[in-house]
Amino acid sequence: MYKSLIRKVLFKFDPEKVHYFTFSFLQKAIKTPGVLKVLKKKYQVENKKLEREVFGLKFKNPVGLAAGFDKDAKLYKELSALGFGFIEIGTLTPKAQSGNPKKRLFRLKEDEAIINRMGFNNGGVEAAVERLKKNNGEVLIGGNIGKNKVTPNEKAVEDYKICFEALFPYVDYFVVNVSSPNTPNLRALQDKKPLTELLQTLQDLNAKKKKVKPILLKIAPDLTDEQLLDIIEIVNQTKIAGVIATNTTISREGLQSENKNEIGGLSGKPLTKRSTEVIRFLAEKSNHAFPIIGVGGIHSAKDALEKLEAGASLVQLYTGFIYEGPKLIKEINQAILEK
After folding, report:
1. Residue 276 assigned to a binding site
2. Residue 193 backbone dihedrals phi, psi, to 5 degrees
3. List 80, 179, 180, 267, catalytic entry
4. Would the annotation count 61 as a binding residue?
5. Which residue of 13, 112, 147, 263 sits 20 to 30 Å from the alpha carbon of 56, by its own alpha carbon?
6. What is the model's pLDDT at position 36?
7. Which domains does the chain have, with CATH numbers?
């Protein structure tokens, strides 16, 4: 029903407006008596065999929602009802910011992809914290953190520290985002020296807590093999918990859609192969030394299984969720059980 009817209607309208409409609709629908129960019955797959223990956390299933969908932690409980094993919020910055000028979100229907240049639009970390206080451990939450656009790279560490400290009591793991192409000069923080300093600073803060929390690094799919080897070395040196592979790409190779030349990060099917290649490279070259969350171009259960077989411990959806609907979560979990 989603692809044959709902998606056809939604795809007739501006994608960013549809996003906010969907949020509002879900929030209201869940409050209707019986709806939550119906959604859970339709989409959730409850089975002990799906449970995973990764970087010290217990996931009820290995299929999560990637950052960028619920930036401000407004819908994590409702989205969890659709069958996700965990929800990653953000990217959050210390101060609220409106992001880049609109129009900044584009569907590439022929390619089953999306280009976005949102620019870390969010209401600021403190506003998200107030919403996360209502979680009470019901949903396993990842906190994806970044820097404000106006913060120069030489002071970026301070922004990450602010977000880390504010979110620490309310998230289960952290993701350091230095790989978005939509904040000027952000990707320069992926260079070995600044990245090592940033991650080590956060690890030092982490070590002072009564109980440390996993810190992961989200990387771009556009890194060279040499840069990926640097990532492995940095992970080993700083002893962070793992890597999320991958963020959106700046490549436009092989695209057919009218909007293919829009500036921004590309996600969806064109990223399927490359993100899996990055996962396999990291897993093999590191001798499976750290967990990897696989994300990028998962539009079917087969895509998810390929990432798990390549070395991912968990997977995340974003664009595939938009194109395929919530049934994709159930299909992936069922396919894992059938393996």
Report:
1. no
2. -65, -55
3. 180
4. no
5. 147
6. 86
7. 2-338 (3.20.20.70)
Angle between helices 125-132 and 156-167 (to 10 degrees): 20
Contact 72, 123 (CB under 8 A): yes
14 in a labelled binding site: no
Burial class (CB in 10 A: 0-12, 13-18, 19+), 49: exposed
The secondary structure of residue 255, as a DSSP letter, is: -
Contact 57, 174 (CB under 8 A): no
CB distance 135 to 74 below 8 Å: no
246 burial level (CB within 10 Å; 0-12, 13-18, 19+):
buried
Task: Characterize the bridge pairing of strands 57-59 and 52-54.
Answer: antiparallel
Identify the segments of the chain with pLDDT beneath 50. Answer: none
Residues in the chain: 339
Residue 116 annotated as binding? yes
Is 118 known to sit in a ligand binding site?
Answer: yes
Q: Is 180 a known active-site residue? A: yes
Q: Decide: 264 and 181 in contact? Cβ < 8 Å.
A: yes
Which of 103, 89, 96, 1 is closest to 42 using CA atoms? Answer: 1
Per-residue pLDDT, 161 = 98
Cα-only R_g, the chain: 19
pLDDT 10s digits, 71-122? 999 999 999 999 999 999 999 999 999 999 999 999 999 999 999 999 999 9
CA nearest 77: which of 67, 89, 66? 89
Look at residue 267 and give its three-state secondary structure: strand
- The single-letter DSSP state of residue 153 is G
Cα–Cα distance measured from residue 162 to residue 142, given in angstroms and rounded to the nearest whole number: 16
d(CA 134, CA 280): 38
Closest to 144 in 3D by CA, of 216, 55, 237, 245: 216
- The reply to whether 201 sits in an annotated binding site is no
Opening angle at CA 167, ends 235 and 39, nearest 5:
100
Measure the CA angle with vertex 220, ends 109 and 172; round to 5°: 100
Report which of 159, 172, 84, 158 is spatially closest to residue 124, judged by C-alpha positions: 159
Q: Is 247 annotated as a binding residue?
A: yes
DSSP state of 59: E
Instruction: Look at the block and give the residue holding tokens 């859609």.
Output: 257
Check residue 27 and give its pLDDT.
86
